[in-house]
């Protein structure tokens, strides 16, 4: 099937993918007077008296803003807010279809961190949560950190943490398959940008102790003097053996390779230098860092990619609909590390011991159990960590 052609036809036919559907009927004078003036003044007065009643009388409690400035869209790069709108519409569709969460795409003409932060703060009263999407690094770090600190609704950058949660879930099960433990394995991550950095943080939260990050210049280590602040931080908190060099040096004896970088950077020969029962997550899209057959030829035992045409697809749709559903259900102020880790284990634990295998370490995108399992785990963690208001 030609997906490019089909997508153009679908978007043109429907003029996009999302619209507004009224929850109430307005067919009579009484309907009109209740939905709008004069009746609508009463919920306004109630909310004025008690601002928390906005959750009682409006859609805020189940509405997420999908916000992007179009500076890092899919694999397309900085294409601008208008060109990014089809992706944000699609994200809103996925929220609704997979998690029952209402979402609205908001593409903003704002190219620096301060402008994006100001825009998000200005619209926050309308929404129960904000999903940041396709915002380039390093601005995305400052934007998310500031909004998390200054807003009282959950803010989540899916390109960072959605990816990190699903990668962690997949790795939990991959390690179960090969009989290794998170705290014992040597992990190499290639591509420590927004997603890569979040993956490292998430894996450290899950117990990983030996992670080496590799960028286009080589391994990150203490005093590496990168031009990017987050890479200097990674050099301080990772690479306990202070391995220097490039991907070749980092991979010698490694148990796990995680790629969020570019096609073809991992070879069969490099895979052969990894430890027995190696795990490779090659997630560059659409062409991964190494193709599965090439990795298997190098001795890799468990392989995952971001593609739907290979086993073990690492797909963010396993995370964000259920994560927001759970956070909104308890009116969480934040999405903290405990909630993220709970989501990862909820996804991983849907694969039973009997079903788990080298080619089945993570549920499929259409598994109907996922969103509810994630939502329940996230809500429970929110209550236990004190960020729930219900």
UniProtKB/TrEMBL annotation:
Which PROSITE patterns does this chain map to? MALIC_ENZYMES (PS00331)
Name the SUPFAM superfamilies on file.
Aminoacid dehydrogenase-like, N-terminal domain, NAD(P)-binding Rossmann-fold domains
Q: Which cofactor does it need?
A: Mn(2+); Mg(2+)
Q: Which SMART domains match?
A: malic (SM01274), Malic_M (SM00919)
Q: Which residues form the Malic enzyme NAD-binding domain?
A: 160-383
Q: Name one Pfam family in it.
A: Malic_M
Annotated Malic enzyme N-terminal domain residues? 15-148
- Please tell me whether the keyword Oxidoreductase is annotated for this protein: yes
Enumerate the UniProt keywords alphabetically. Metal-binding, Oxidoreductase
Family per record: Belongs to the malic enzymes family.
**PANTHER family, from UniProt?**
NADP-DEPENDENT MALIC ENZYME (PTHR43237)
Which protein, by its recorded name, is this?
Malic enzyme-like NAD(P)-binding protein
* Classification lineage: Bacteria, Bacillati, Bacillota, Clostridia, Eubacteriales
């Amino acid at each position: 099937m030609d997906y490019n052609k089909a997508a153009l036809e679908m978007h043109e036919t429907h003029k996009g993918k999302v619209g507004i559907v009224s929850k109430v009927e307005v067919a009579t004078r009484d309907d009109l007077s209740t939905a709008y003036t004069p009746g609508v003044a009463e919920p306004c007065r109630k909310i004025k008296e008690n601002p928390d009643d906005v959750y009682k009388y409006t859609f805020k409690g189940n509405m997420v803003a999908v916000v992007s400035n179009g500076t890092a869209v899919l694999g397309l790069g900085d294409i601008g807010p208008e060109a990014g709108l089809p992706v944000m519409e699609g994200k809103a569709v996925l929220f609704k279809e997979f998690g029952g969460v209402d979402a609205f795409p908001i593409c903003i003409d704002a190219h620096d961190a301060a402008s994006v932060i100001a825009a998000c703060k200005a619209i926050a009263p309308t929404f129960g949560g904000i999903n940041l999407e396709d915002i380039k690094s390093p601005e995305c770090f400052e934007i998310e950190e500031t909004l998390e600190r200054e807003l009282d609704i959950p803010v989540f950058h899916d390109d960072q943490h959605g990816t990190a949660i699903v990668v962690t879930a997949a790795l939990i099960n991959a390690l179960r398959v090969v009989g290794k433990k998170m705290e014992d394995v040597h992990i190499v991550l290639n591509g420590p940008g927004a997603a890569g950095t979040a993956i490292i943080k998430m894996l450290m939260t899950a117990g990983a102790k030996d992670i080496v990050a590799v960028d286009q210049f080589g391994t990150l280590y203490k005093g590496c003097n990168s031009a990017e602040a987050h890479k200097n931080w990674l050099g301080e908190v990772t690479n306990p053996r202070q391995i220097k060099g490039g991907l070749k040096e980092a991979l010698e004896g490694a148990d796990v390779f995680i790629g969020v970088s570019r096609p073809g950077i991992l070879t069969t020969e490099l895979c052969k230098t990894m430890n027995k029962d190696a795990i490779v997550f090659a997630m560059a899209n659409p062409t991964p860092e190494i193709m599965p057959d090439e990795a298997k030829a190098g001795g890799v035992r468990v392989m995952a990619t971001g593609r739907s045409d290979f086993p073990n697809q690492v797909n963010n749709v396993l995370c964000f609909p259920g994560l927001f559903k759970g956070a909104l259900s308890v009116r969480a102020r934040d999405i903290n590390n405990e909630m993220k880790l709970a989501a990862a284990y909820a996804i991983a634990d849907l694969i039973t011991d009997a079903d788990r295998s080298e080619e089945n370490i993570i549920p499929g995108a259409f598994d109907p159990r996922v969103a509810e399992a994630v939502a329940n785990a996230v809500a429970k963690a929110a209550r236990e960590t004190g960020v729930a208001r219900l």
